[in-house]
Amino acid sequence: MDAKTWKNPIIAWVDKRLPIFTMMQHDLVDYPTPRNLNYWWNFGSLAGIVLVIMIATGVVLAMHYTPHTQHAFESVERIMRDVNYGWLLRYLHMNGASMFFIVVYIHMFRGLYYGSYKAPRELLWQIGVIILLAMMATAFMGYVLPWGQMSYWGAKVITNLFSAIPLVGDAIVTWLWGGFAVDNPTLNRFFALHYLLPFLLFALVFLHLVALHTSKSNNPLGIDVKGPQDTIPFTPYYTVKDMFGLGAFLIFYLAFVFFAPNFFGEPDNYIKANPMQTPPHIVPEWYFLPFYAILRAITFDILFIPAKLLGVIAMFAAVLVLLFLPWLDRSAVRSARFRPIYKQVFWLFVADCILLGVVGGHPPEGVWVPLGQAATAFYFAFFLVIMPLLSFIERPRPLPSSISAAVTGKGVGISAHGVAE
Amino acid sequence: MKRKTLAAAFATLLFTTGAAVASEAPKLPAQSWSFSGTFGTFGRPDLQRGFQVYKQICSSCHAAHLLAYRNLTDIGFTPQQVTDFAADFEVEDGPNDEGEMFTRKAVAADRFVKPFPNEAAARAANNGAYPPDLSLMTKARVGGPDYVYALLTGYKEEPPAGFALMEGMHYNEYFPGHQVAMAPPLSEGGVDYADGTTATVEQMAKDVVTFLSWAAEPEMEVRKRLGVKVMIFLVALTALLFALKRKIWSDVH
Ligand code: HEM
């Protein structure tokens, strides 16, 4: 990284001792980016902006919020009614959580489609999976804070899952609760952790970006950058494209905030938590529904392992399996554009995830049970069977010789196995 | 005991059947509310009539503890009217300089005084049933305002043949399970509207639901108004950014 000579003497002085301006120049301005990125590449920067919005609104909410079972619900309503623009802060934060997951799920499907998890980006992808886990923990604990019926019962049901662990399960649950029920100690620690985790997320995002800028962006063709003719500097090209994407995203996000702020929420969460009264239908937030469906799909014991434990294992495995993706998919071709079979199975997988979400929102009875089981089976088969198998049986279409050749319409087709077609 | 509750909680997770009860309820008829949609607002006369219904009928059983009397100026009452409404109620205050608690007249800054000092007292007066707080009611039920309206107008004198109605319960088409402990609260001419509107059951139901919708979302009008401005700004900004993006990228494609 060559230190640039800065005209402004103050900037030059600082930069000589602490090269932050050189770093910014390097990573936000000069950063060579493939010239053919499509709009699916906007979602990473959007996720970063949503994280900043969540932290900003969250810190101000925390100034007015009271983490006590007797006051939490009322303090949130005070924010809604008596704090200046408190309703705006809260609705931004509440809907921001949903937006965060929408953006990140799209970001991940993008990676899945274009093979962005393959060498040399394995660690980049795995840090992403850890980010997803941290986000899930943050959102789960945040949802408990307003201390409504779903907050309370959701917390109870999910923490209870740990009781499935043999021998130490009950002890772990008591430890998580800080007592013998979900109560004030639980709410207190959830608030503390809900405040802490986003900053951990911030650090993880930083690592994610270091890894990104080391191996550089993948692109819709999935082929490596061959030289400067394949790239353009990040600024102004992608800065302006990201700004435009941000504008479009804000229209979507704020339409919910201003005109349908409770669209993603459950009416039950406007009833104050009542440990004596179980709501008829306990459902988590929409972004957890696919995992909830997988949890409930296992209704049978296998050998000596009880169904409940298997369900919990399956649910965690559904996320953790993503960590192994770089080695489950052995195909040398990254982009699904050149993988005729994978491309179709990919869309089946997307449909399967949506189906799991729908199943997760219904009580597990009637047709929803076998449907959930079939969808769960396909979910795991996609990663554990189809992906490894496709690596061998699929014959990829010829790859363009370079990004610039593909963009300008020239270039000889060479297949992944080096065979001209 | 603890294990039992754990098991029970998990059973509700795995085998929730409660929704079956809900699903047998008939579909809620959709009402046309002045406050729905992007530009919807509350009519001030409707709100004031709704407040009258709440005050004269519902408030004898239901609290609305998230509202303060001062909030009523937002629906068009004068500060004097608000002071007068509040003055009808007594609140406990103190301790005074002698260390004694005392009661005083409620003032505009006080929250709506609850009809019962606590849940047990409310249940004792209502045959064991608890009249829930109404401040968030329209946000706290699936169907929102349509549900509350349907509930208030959905009573049947006689349950259908073969329906076993319990002692002291009332048949309602829209309440989950159809047996509700609340007696039909509205009857023809139940209030004497200050503005001379005829107090039919439908009229009162509509008015009180409008009032409760405001009570649940007092920020709604400000929110939507600000939203329209923000949207206009964002659409213009995004269009400009799109043009800028096209211009900057013109040498790449
Ligand atoms: C990764 C980013 C974050 C996510 C995904 C997230 C998620 C959530 C969710 C789902 C809720 C419940 C919303 C509701 O039903 O009202 C919530 C509430 C809350 N969050 Fe966050 N949050 C994040 C960051 C933060 C940060 C950084 C803070 C503070 C420093 C914070 C403070 C709060 C507070 C005080 C509440 C309770 C008030 C309320 O319910 O509106 N959050 N959060």
Automatic annotation (TrEMBL), chain A:
One of its GO terms (molecular function) is metal ion binding. Residues 224-401 form the Cytochrome b/b6 C-terminal region profile domain. Heme b b566 binds at H107, H208. Its cofactor is heme b; heme. Pfam families: Cytochrom_B_C, Cytochrome_B. Its main location: membrane. This is Cytochrome b. It comes from Candidatus Defluviicoccus seviourii. The lineage of its organism: Bacteria, Pseudomonadati, Pseudomonadota, Alphaproteobacteria, Rhodospirillales.
Automatic annotation (TrEMBL), chain B:
InterPro entries: Cyt_c-like_dom (IPR009056), Cyt_c-like_dom_sf (IPR036909), Cyt_c1 (IPR002326), Cyt_c1_TM_anchor_C (IPR021157). Belongs to the cytochrome c family. It comes from the Bacteria. Binds 1 heme c group covalently per subunit. It comes from Candidatus Defluviicoccus seviourii. Residues 45-216 form the Cytochrome c domain. Keywords: Electron transport, Heme, Iron, Membrane, Metal-binding, Respiratory chain, Signal, Transmembrane, Transmembrane helix, Transport. This is Cytochrome c1. GO terms for cellular component: membrane.
